[in-house]
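Hello forum,

I keep getting stuck at the same step: I have a sequence, I want structure tokens, and every attempt I make locally crashes halfway through. Rather than fight my setup again tonight, could one of you with a working pipeline run this one for me? It's a single chain of 146 residues.
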Amino acid sequence: MSFLTRILPSFLVSWLFTFTLASLFHSQYVVNQLVNVGVVVGFSDRVSLTLDDWLGLLPTYGAIIAIALAIAFLVTVQLNKKVKKYRTQLFVIAGIVAFAMVLIAIKSIMNIHIIAGARGWGFYTQLLAGAAGGYVFSRLTKTNII
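Reply #2:
Ran it on my machine without issues. Output:
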């Protein structure tokens, strides 16, 4: 019962936060690339694009992020049983590794970027989203026995 009442809600909150950041970073990377080639993008267009991207990416990229984070956090829970002193750091690293593995694996296997916002410096913003998600999960589950 602890899983359904404590861990699952914490995971869902951290996943939603992580996905929202990753989607936001993706959208702003794409807008920045448009601005770099001379396209004028107003604030309302930025907001509209960001919201459209969030909704459009949710079923695919959102699901991929959920699976990657679930695997990374499960491994980290086991690792944390042996190394309790660095709990938060381990979850932050787990979030980074989850994103890195997904983005690199898909690029290597399919020779495509899963999202345009993961090209160039956008790759590092995606890793930052993973780190933030790991941090949030760590903080939300700190009092739980995991």
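The chain has a mean pLDDT of 90. If your local run keeps crashing, start a new thread with the error log.
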